[in-house]
Design brief:
The protein has a single domain, classed as Rossmann fold (3-Layer(aba) Sandwich), CATH 3.40.50. A 6-stranded mixed β-sheet has the order 3-4-2-1-5-6, with helices on both faces. Helix 2 packs across helix 3. Helix 5 links the parallel strand 5 and strand 6. The radius of gyration is 17 Å and the shape is globular. The protein is an alpha/beta fold. It has 8 helices and 8 strands, in the order βαααβββαβαβααββα. The longest helix is centred in the first third of the chain and has 19 residues.
Amino acid sequence: MNIIIDGYNLIRQSDSLSRFERFSLEEGRKELIRRLSHFKKLKGHKITVVFDGWISGSPKEERHNEAGITIIYSKRGEKADEVIKRMVRKSDREIIVVTSDRDIANSISRSGGVAISSPEFEFRIQTIEAGVADSYERNGVDDGEERTSGKKKGPSKRLSRKERKASARLRKL
């Protein structure tokens, strides 16, 4: 599975990461990469972080690896949003995009990918690092198979096929 992260969106949506960003943008990026590399060691997913470089960045898109994480800076004049959308359209792998930007999330869903909000992703990382991921799923959070009210009368409310596929991808996180 490939996880694509809207870097600055995640940093600014996270209370803990935004504290690092207050010192400098670089400190926020470093802490994000440190946490993601730890997550990658635990889960083994391919992780790509995309940062905006569109205002003062390089004329060309820049890519490099750090601690097993692929880092992309968009070229000058192009937002990270466009880079993420392009990556999803070109990919043939299972993709989860981490962003709280509604426009990107809608575009990703239309392209067959799955979007997860930045705070929800951060919560999942913290849960996995704390070693309670199994109990998190056992308690029925995001199981996605059936939605039922507390009563046992009437037919179950099954999720649509698209929602079940999205839920299955998110469980792999």
